[in-house]
Amino acid sequence: MTDINLIRKTLAEKYSEACGKIMHPPNQGIVRVLTNPTVKSFYLDLIYRGNDKVNFAHRMTDKDIILLSEVVPEYSNVNKGTTQIIRNLDFSYNQISNIGIEMFAKLLKECPNLESVNLQGNDIGAQGA
């Protein structure tokens, strides 16, 4: 059985390490959401709504989504199947543009069990869509 909280914690660590490599401060809201121990699910639901009062001051940017898009598949290659358990993604009302979503789209192709994606309220134009 997969320990989803261990996966989430490891992804938060890998994301923070990737941020350090490019001198980008880790988004503490993303780290907080990933390491939330109250999540009880077999699936890896990535929910980070920028309009949430807790996240509003730390909305996700292109750099954040690009780093996550690199870390998740890298971790999945080492620990077989992480992209297999991603079910829901909600990054609505953040600061993601066409640039960030282009990299993120590559991750989506690796998620065969994905049920929903919500990207409303970002800066994604026709090209990104």
Could you walk me through the main structural features you see in this protein, from its secondary elements to its overall organization?
There is one protein chain. By secondary structure, the chain is mainly alpha-helical. It has one domain. It has helices spanning 4-21, 28-34, 62-78, 98-108; strands spanning 44-47, 86-90, 116-118. A three-stranded parallel sheet has the order 1-2-3. Helix 3 packs parallel to helix 4. The model has no long low-confidence stretch (mean pLDDT 87).
- What is the count of distinct domains? 1
Q: What is the mean predicted local confidence, pLDDT?
A: 87
- Shape assignment: globular
Q: Provide the succession of SSEs.
A: HHEHEHE
Rounded to the nearest angstrom, the distance between the terminal CA atoms is 36 Å
Number of strands: 3
Strand order of the largest sheet: 1-2-3
Portion in strands: 5-15%
Number of helix segments?
A: 4
Low-confidence stretches: none
Radius of gyration: 14 Å
The chain-level structural class is mainly alpha
Helical percentage: 40-55%
Largest sheet: 3 strands, parallel
